[in-house]
Amino acid sequence: MLTTNPFDDDKLREECGIFGVSGTDGEAAALVALGLHALQHRGQEAAGITSWDGNQFHTHRAMGHVAGNFDRDDVIRALPGTAACGHVRYSTTGETALRNVQPLYAELQSGGFAIAHNGNISNATRLRRELVRRGSIFQSTSDTETIIHLVATSSYRTLLDKFIDALRQVEGAYSLVVMTPEGMIACRDPLGIRPLVMGTLDGAIIFASETVALDVVGAQFVRAIDPGEL
Fold this sequence. Notes:
This protein has 230 residues and is α+β, with helices and mostly antiparallel strands. The protein has one domain (15-224): Glutamine Phosphoribosylpyrophosphate, subunit 1, domain 1 (4-Layer Sandwich), CATH 3.60.20.10. The protein contains six helices and eleven strands. A hairpin with a 4-residue loop joins β2 and β3.
């Protein structure tokens, strides 16, 4: 007699949680940590936060839950700035290792950015093979890095245009937040399979995987990001 459902593996898993904030008056990282607590059910493997202090990016990533890794004052103090993004990981692609924990960071001639991504890039293997053939060197096994290399090799000049160009080549179900020195970029896949919502808090803009994360930080829900919107 079967004791498990043979189709359990076909369920649409929540996979990961993302949270980003820009324009806070205080420590953005503390707000992100609180938001990630509310999204912990979306990923228990690892967590990470990257902040921007107006001059440089600061990152802390760790295996395990948000609690214990981001409840310490010294960790939050090491992530200064009025903008930050974070991620809780449920691995769907890539090995369980610190190098795959997000946000991932990249430094380009056009500027640096940190990216937190939820979902799957269904054509990542093909894209990765082509990027390696053209000389790209991958530091992780996460398909999120595929987006980074597509951005890095784009012929467009501005970072925003590079992301538009990169995402036109990507297939799959995803949502993502990207933190740059100029602000926050948010995007949702054309079919809107992966969730992403926007809220406000005292003039700050917040993006999160679920409205529960907005509620826990006291933010006001504005709307869901539309399918295909960037």
